[in-house]
Specification:
17 strands; 2 domains; 320 residues; five-stranded mixed sheet; 30% strand; Nucleotidyltransferase, domain 5
């Protein structure tokens, strides 16, 4: 039995690609949301970035979070181990947690219960769930400042649209592809049609210069010149899906409210926000503007910081 018992307050952003943990107003874990198990014992042996530093046949690598948690036991192990790395064990001290955790807007009640169960198993004595787009709106200081907004979370594995009116969610939509899929589409197109293998740097450059001819009309890969216009066509069907999702979301709301939110433009978040030509393309389809914060990949964490500093102010946004 412990002589002392106290609580650590943590913010947890469980993304499909990155796991970020906030403690004492700073990010203490910011690594890949990945883990590796031993093939024989089935025990977790690696987590985070270290998973990709090893290629032993004796381990199996996987990601337990795919937009929502795909493997709750694995996700629980991953998050629990990451939290333990940031909170040293001390003799006679048994720390419980007060957890603020972001979840997708599409989450079901069953999935919410599973999140809570996982956090309870990690010795969380108080659990608060926050929708990720709400945390983004708070992190970008938009929720109470603008109130009528469209958040576009363009991340590694998804594009999630959330429409707010008077600081409340009134419409939402998402597609299950993001930056990783767009890069894979480009990689496959280049390999099949030009017989060369692009590096990740090549793929990033293509996405950054998506609109053909803006900065460069061709890209050279292994001495093969590839027209940017051909790569633009390869991506087109995916961007049309994202456009349609945006329109479908906006068409579901009142026309007066729609006009209000469009006047404020689209607010992009996530790593995909850095691909400004694609963001501009999506905004142009709605005849509106767009903007992003200085660190869009940290919008959720910045929102969690503000919530943890003043939970009373954001009590209406917390799900207990």
């Amino acid at each position: 039995m412990s002589f002392f018992n106290f609580s650590h307050i943590v913010g947890i952003d469980m993304g499909s690609y990155m796991l970020r943990i906030l403690k004492d107003d700073r990010v203490v874990f910011n690594e890949r949301a990945s883990m590796a198990r031993d093939r024989t014992t089935n025990k977790m042996v690696l987590l985070g970035n270290s998973v990709y530093e090893h290629n032993h046949e004796s381990i199996v690598k996987y990601e337990p979070i795919d937009y929502v948690i795909a493997d709750f036991e694995g996700a629980e192990q991953l998050v629990n181990s990451a939290v333990k790395k940031t909170i040293p064990n001390r003799f006679f001290l048994a720390a419980s947690l007060i957890s603020y955790t972001t979840v997708p807007t599409s989450i079901t009640e069953v999935e919410k219960r599973a999140y809570r169960d996982s956090l309870e198993h990690m010795n969380s004595k108080a659990i608060y769930l926050i929708y990720s787009p709400v945390a983004i709106a708070i992190g970008q200081q938009l929720l109470f400042e603008k109130r009528d907004i469209i958040i576009v979370d363009f991340s590694a594995s998804k594009v999630e649209i959330t429409v707010f009116h008077d600081a409340e969610i009134i419409a939402k939509n998402h597609v299950r592809f993001g930056v990783i899929k767009l890069k894979k589409v480009l990689e496959n197109h280049i390999k099949r049609n030009y017989k060369v293998a692009p590096s990740d740097d090549h793929l990033t450059r293509i996405l950054q210069n998506y609109t053909a001819g803006v900065n460069e009309k061709t890209i050279k890969i292994q001495n093969v010149s590839i027209p940017m216009s051909a790569l633009q066509i390869a991506l087109e069907r995916y961007l049309l899906i994202a456009e349609d999702m945006l329109l479908e979301c906006l068409e579901s709301i009142d026309v007066i409210i729609r006009a209000k939110v469009l006047r404020n433009g689209l607010f992009f978040s996530g790593g995909g926000a850095y691909y400004k030509q694609i963001c501009k393309r999506l905004a142009n389809s709605l005849e509106t503007g767009y903007s992003m914060s200085s660190s869009p990949e940290l919008d959720v964490i910045n929102g969690l910081k503000l919530i943890i500093r003043d939970p009373k102010k954001y009590s209406a946004q917390l799900m207990q």
